[in-house]
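Hi R.,

As promised on Friday, here is the backbone we talked about, encoded as structure tokens. Could you run it through your design pipeline when you get a chance and send me back a sequence?
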């Protein structure tokens, strides 16, 4: 179903009645600010995930080259009888 001219006109009139003439520019400004913040976070998240992957890879390489001392054997003693 496609919205025709009359349906769109009705929606615009209802929005003008509900929000008034003064609040619509403020709504659009807030909407644009939210969209810009969302786009910025998407860009920052991509950069952060690449940095995290590089750091994780470096940590695994460092851990793989690190020598680990063998564990000492622990002697278990027999339970004491009373």
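Update: got your reply. Pasting your designed sequence below so it's all in one thread:
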């Amino acid at each position: 179903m496609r919205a025709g001219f009359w349906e769109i006109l009705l929606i615009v009139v209802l929005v003008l009645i509900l929000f008034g003439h003064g609040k619509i520019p403020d709504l659009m400004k807030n909407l644009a600010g939210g969209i810009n913040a969302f786009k910025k976070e998407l860009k920052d998240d991509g950069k952060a995930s690449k940095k995290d992957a590089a750091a994780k890879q470096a940590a695994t390489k460092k851990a793989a080259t690190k020598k680990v001392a063998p564990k000492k054997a622990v002697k278990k003693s027999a339970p004491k009888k009373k």
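One thing I noticed while checking it: The longest helix spans residues 5-65.

Thanks again,
M.
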